[in-house]
């Protein structure tokens, strides 16, 4: 009996460690950074996802450009049961930096519109704009919101590593609470709520005595939280950084580096 109890006591901590652990509750600034970013940024798995979406024909009174508060007219499969649509325009095309495989495209946020009247030309009221709406801009249904409470810190089934390939807000240096685009997605094993370690590649310097180039060691430089995954791409939020991060920095699943 004592031996069985001892085995149980020794096994319990290990068993608990193998279970998915909830991510510590994200503070308000972190949650706001995620929601604000997702309002203005979106990835589509293929160009056809945007090219086949409903599109805007013209704005109120026949004008070709719409502004906040105006009505716009669109053609395509728009559902009255879906009252709100995002207005998007084709943006960056993402390819893998090593294989050159097409990974997806960035849909640039133009604004939002609300369904008004159905017909051969559907009428929508513009609610928010970041720039003028143009004929040909596409209408997409809203994505499901991110709920950080559903995140779980679960080990990846396989070791995953990749590269930071873009900073959607257009800066060159990445800091805490900045969002980045990663060249790995659901098919590679990434999941929302996963933590990743960012690794800075060591610089190459010249040995002053021998003249030979020497690669300095790679160093862990930060932590990312994966908060939105697509088939081949993901968005990550910088939770910590010991030094400025940049495009083409490497990341890997955090449990492999701890």
Question: Keyphrases for this structure?
Answer:
17 strands, six-stranded antiparallel barrel, single chain, Thrombin, subunit H, mainly beta, 258 residues, Peptidoglycan-binding protein, seven-stranded antiparallel β-sheet, signal, Bact_Kbp
Describe the structure.
The chain is mostly beta strands and 258 residues long. The protein folds into 2 domains: 42-141; 151-256, FlgT, C-terminal domain (Thrombin, subunit H, Beta Barrel). It contains 3 helices and 17 strands. It has helices at 2-18, 28-40, 47-51; strands at 21-22, 41-44, 55-59, 71-75, 84-95, 102-117, 122-129, 138-141, 152-153, 161-166, 179-182, 195-200, 204-206, 213-215, 219-229, 234-241, 250-253. It starts with a helix and ends in a 5-residue tail after the last strand. Mean pLDDT is 84; it is low at 3-23.
Estimated share of beta-strand residues: 35-45%
Shape: elongated
By CATH reckoning, the class of the largest domain would read Mainly Beta
Structural class: mainly beta
What name is given to the CATH topology of the largest domain?
A: Thrombin, subunit H
Q: Low-confidence stretches at least 5 residues in length (pLDDT < 50)?
A: 3-23
Distance between the termini: 37 Å
Tell me which CATH architecture of the largest domain applies here: Beta Barrel
The CATH superfamily of the largest domain bears the name: FlgT, C-terminal domain
Beta-strand segment tally: 17
The DSSP helix count reads 3
Q: The biggest beta sheet, please?
A: 7 strands, antiparallel
- SSE topology string: HEHEHEEEEEEEEEEEEEEE
Arithmetic mean of pLDDT: 84
- The radius of gyration over CA amounts to 23 Å
Percent of residues in helices comes to 10-25%
Number of domains: 2
InterPro entries: Bact_Kbp
Protein name: Peptidoglycan-binding protein
Signal peptide: 1-17
Keywords: Signal
